[in-house]
Amino acid sequence: IAAAVDIWARGPAALPPPRQPRTPVLPVEGERNVLITSALPYVNNVPHLGNIIGCVLSADTFARYCRLRSWNTLFVCGTDEYGTATETRALEEGLSPQELCDRYHAVHADVYAWFRISFDYFGRTTTPQQTRIAQDIFQRLLARGFLLQDTLEQLRCESCGRYLADRFVEGTCPFCGYAEARGDQCDKCGKLINAVELKNPQCKLCRGTPVVTPTQHLFLDLPKLEGQLEAWLERTWAAGDWTSNARHITRTWLRDGLKPRCITRDLTWGTPVPLDGFRDKVFYVWFDAPIGYLSITANYTDQWERWWKNPQQ
Asked: Which CATH number fits domain 23-142+285-309: 3.40.50.80, 3.40.50.620, 3.10.450.50, 3.40.50.300?
């Protein structure tokens, strides 16, 4: 504040010279290097003011502030395009998932351009770079023993010849009796549901009756990481700026003990799983989507690792 008052008193001549933009923006030795991302908006709808205010606008404001301070700043974002919601919307609109993503990615890009959001790069998750990086991270986890195999019971529609993801199933809520509950949640009572718990389940595609069928899936072995995670959290909580709410939620997860997390799905729209026995599956969107921050940066510059694997700068 004192420095700002001093410069204000001395006038514009006291301001540092404006930074000359570089393309691509890469970390510079000896300078303050800032990488900014905002949450990747999901691609299956038109963005509204809530999307922009909730994450994009605050990141844009901070990016503009950093540039005014002459800090070396890269601001990236993009559309999150894999997952069941995209498949569902594509069926409703009579398009392929890729056609739907192409349409709504363009809509998103136009909306943010109209609001003059100052992205250095606005990308997407359906790219070869996303596949390469996600599969590489998967292979590293596999080689280090952080993955498990287990059997899940899922609903399968024999008429459609496919396992049904949560959003492709409707039925009667086992808790409140609501007749149009989804396979992941009841919109009436709000409780989370396992699709196999639904009464009178129906396939949303053909209205047939699915049957419970076992299927093999891969899980991230989070319990194996619990000790390392706790030690890391103690260090970062002591030195960092975590909010009290973030600390409370994280402590709750650890207090209850971490559970293995399924990272594969019986879908066709997603990043393929590169492992024999699982090549007909794709990665669960919440394993895949966060990697989009890396792959979007990689589509911006082939030197993306200088941003993501460079703690010294």
From this structure: 3.40.50.620
